[in-house]
Amino acid sequence: MRDLTIMMLLFETGMRANEIIGIALSDIRWEDSQLLIRNAKGQRERFCSVTGEDEGSVTEIYRD
């Protein structure tokens, strides 16, 4: 489940592998379906939109 979620995030959002590694639970903005990416290219922060299906998968990963 974890690996599938990571692959989905890479494909659907265009995130880089190092950006996914750096995601913390506090970086997820559930109210507007956004992920805060702290270690983005160029050391800038940015937001990335996620779908409802991705939100559920991310929740499952952090629940374990």
Structure characterization notes:
- The protein has 64 residues and is α+β, with helices and mostly antiparallel strands.
- The protein has one domain (2-63).
- The protein is built from three helices and three strands.
- The chain has helices at residues 2-13, 17-21, 52-63, and strands spanning 28-29, 34-37, 46-49.
- Strands 1-2-3 form a three-stranded antiparallel beta sheet, with no helix packed on it.
- The relative contact order is 0.24.
- The model has no long low-confidence stretch (mean pLDDT 79).
Biggest sheet, strands in spatial order? Answer: 1-2-3
Query: What spatial form do the alpha-carbon principal axes imply?
Result: globular
| SSE order | HHEEEH
Uncertain stretches of 5 or more adjacent residues:
none
Q: Measured on Cα atoms, how large is the radius of gyration?
A: 11 Å
List the domain count as a whole number.
Answer: 1
Ends apart, CA distance between termini: 11 Å
Mean pLDDT: 79
Keywords:
single chain, about 60 residues, alpha+beta, three-stranded antiparallel sheet, 3 helices
SSE layout and pairing:
Elements: H1 2-13, H2 17-21, E1 28-29, E2 34-37, E3 46-49, H3 52-63
Helix pairs in contact: 1-3
